[in-house]
Amino acid sequence: xxxxxxxxWKIKMVEPIRKSTREEREQWLxxxxxxxxxxxAEHVYIDLLTDSGTGAMSQRQWAExxxxxxxxxxxxxxxxxxxxxxxxxxxxxxxxxxxxxxxENVLFSFLVKAGNIIPGNSHFDTTKxxxxxxxxxxxxxxxxxxxxxxxxxxxxxxxxxxxxxKALAENRGNVPFVxxxxxxxxxxxxxxxxxxxxxxxxxxxxxxxxxxxxxxRFAENAYxxxxxxxxxxxxxxxxxxxxxxxNADAMTMSAKKDAIVNMGGFIATRHKEWYEGAKTFxxxxxxxxxxxxxxxxxxxxxxxxxxxxTEFDNxxxxxxxxxxxxxxxxxxxxxxQRPFGGHAIFIDAPKVLTHVPKEEFPxxxxxxxxxxxxxxxxxxxxxxxxxxxxxxxxxxFGGLDLLRLAxxxxxxxxxxxxxxxxxxxxxxxxxxxxxxxxxxxxxxxxMRHFTVQLKRLQ
Length: 458
Ligand code: F0G
Fold this sequence. Notes:
By secondary structure, the protein is an alpha/beta fold.
């Protein structure tokens, strides 16, 4: 008999988590204004808010924490991190930042001017925020197929090369760079193929435009290239990563995902002029050039995390768990963005809560229902997160309205996945009775989903 699949690690330290009653959760959610970001973490049983900064570090990473060099300038920890980034990506110039959005802030302060057009495949919300706050336009060129959650496509995160070509042709001289996000978080943690990465690079070259990779989950993307794309099955993850970045001019990185640290990020590039331009913004915003927003110990852990998480076994263990949850949801017929993504399952909320009108935010309503059902905290990636159109101030209902169940790396077991699946099934079974959603009572102008206050409609 073939042995079943199991994790490529064992557990050395545990953190207790606590269940609660439905009555407690009703009260806590009301106090949180039906916004799960406002909940206390101790009131959450299984936390799927994000896979960002929530992973379990390895023993090697914890050992590296003790070796951190906290010198203000020239710390050995910086060089350890820089050398690992160079090994994996080939980029010579590295600027540490405290997380991914800080890397965007520093680099975009140099590159983005009012009126610029920045095409991409579903810009992440902070990326979009840093573009729009500079009065530039984040132009979405994702393939249309990404919007059909039931369509099975191996690389549903891809850039539409025709849309990109058109955007670059129409905006000559006004595009500072193109941004390619791997994996495509907003479209459901969907990967981008190597063919599409190369195609994007070729279109950029045609117009003399540089290519920036938003790399938060590049290693998971490389796993999908290895397991889904012809010609890559015998390449190592590190070889695939190197090939990915050989097509890019620079990367911004939220190391809280695929480098499995609790905090950290960086910019890396092959261009001295981008480094020189960005570094003048690093010092006032983040800190001196050899620590940015990071501790020495965290740079050490980041280096070890990058090394370990660009190995196949670790990625396989992680993505097989996401796949396991997807298969459980299939048993219950619960609709999600197909096929399963790298870091999360994205439930297609309007297909579940068919009676809740879009103006009442179905995905946010489903997020609340799942929390009330079992103390599981997911995250709305939908109409609330989409913010209002900066010009018309209308809600943007054009995209998907998803409940994201992000799986932290190496944190929960498949027993937890079973609880999540059954809790969702219970909500799904009573979906016909859920007819009203939520209404906004207060919202911020930008990135409102973190702080929005809502009222439950009866
Ligand atoms: N780019 C992508 C694709 C992301 O998913 C994120 C963060 C960022 C950039 C910004 O990085 O958080 O380190 O500042 N995504 C998290 C999430 C927050 O939950 O998906 P950050």
